[in-house]
Predict the structure.
Amino acid sequence: MNQHVAPAKKLTGTLHLPPDKSIAQRAALFSMLSEERSVIANYPAAEDPQTALRCIALLGATVSKKEFEVTVDGVGRDALRPDPGTVDCGNSGTVMRLLSGIIAGAGITATLTGDASLAGRPMKRIVDPLVRMGAAMDTAHGGYPPLRISRKDPLRPILFELPVASAQLKSCVLLAGLFGDTPTRVVESVPSRNHTETMLRLPVSPENGKNVIESSRDLAIPPQNLRIPGDFSAAAFWMVAASILEGSDLLLPATGINPTRCAALHILERMGADIETSNERLEGDEPVADIRVRAANLKGVDIHPEEIPNAIDELPVLSVAMAFAEGRSRITGASELRYKESDRLREMQNMLERAGVKIIGYDDGLAIDGNPGQFAKAAVHDSRHDHRMAMSAAILSLRGDGVSEIRNAEAAAVSYPDFWSDLDSVAHV
Ligand code: S3P
């Protein structure tokens, strides 16, 4: 599907965000591992979370859906279907990496596949620790899906120092560790999103400035009875859009503001954005707030390497904000962006260059010379089937000098199926 985006004068109104994809996918996987019934409210209709439900059903969980409420009767750790065959993880790196930990830990045999984008994402990072833990893993040409997983030796708990700040890798190893008689310990020096630790109530202790997280068979797996908060990563598109369009005023109720997720909020505040959070509360164990964003004059910002993991999914749209900020902005230490649903550093650079923005690309980041007075040149963008690139190009095009076209715009549905209708509902053209 190709989508045309006309320049907007301003954005006003209230948007109810899609529920958080990271939390929802975990809620599905963990409810399968629990022996009790879980009732998950506000479960997303987006493609990745629906993939997670299909996968847990294939592994033996009983899933029933009533509007946005999902009930899962879990199978527990030891009664997963032993031979699920081929498990299609769609576009979801989270499902593939977390499920690999579960399958390797449980000692069942499965082949994990995905779409063309997932087939290009590196899996060696999870293969190495899982093989150390006793799994046998076959991959395509040196570490890419499909992944065939089975158990070679009895599960060996490990001490694992994360070589890269990745919540997917951290979660994968901790989930395999849940099947061990003694604790697996994962050491992280740069914190990434902590939903797995929080939702499974895993012990986390600080040691020499690092977090040590433990999992083992001794820990009971709690049922997942929660209401999924609004997705901060979805909110970020609107926070940038409202900031760069004069006269805008948007309200985003019940947005997740877990500190390991919302560095983009603080980065935008450093840029001078006008963001108000109110009514802070907890949904289950996750903090949420109502967020109001109004247009502001932005200035350039440096995003430091240690902030990257907590803003990783928001960097594409933050680069759009940088294009309209006074002065130079820099992103460094962000080479992980090259391994997402697309090579996002390359795609961000291409997108901004097409729009006439001055940008320099580096191996691990970008430098952008912003100009508050400029309008993005109308252009033909292609999401390359990456949901966040489709939506970032749309936000960029709202500050365009003419109508832009976004090719493969349907990719937005991976995390935000109502993105295009939400855009229509708040944009004044
Ligand atoms: C995710 C973690 C991040 C993020 C992805 C979702 C998760 O990936 O980019 O969209 O749900 O754990 P990495 O952990 O690989 O950085």
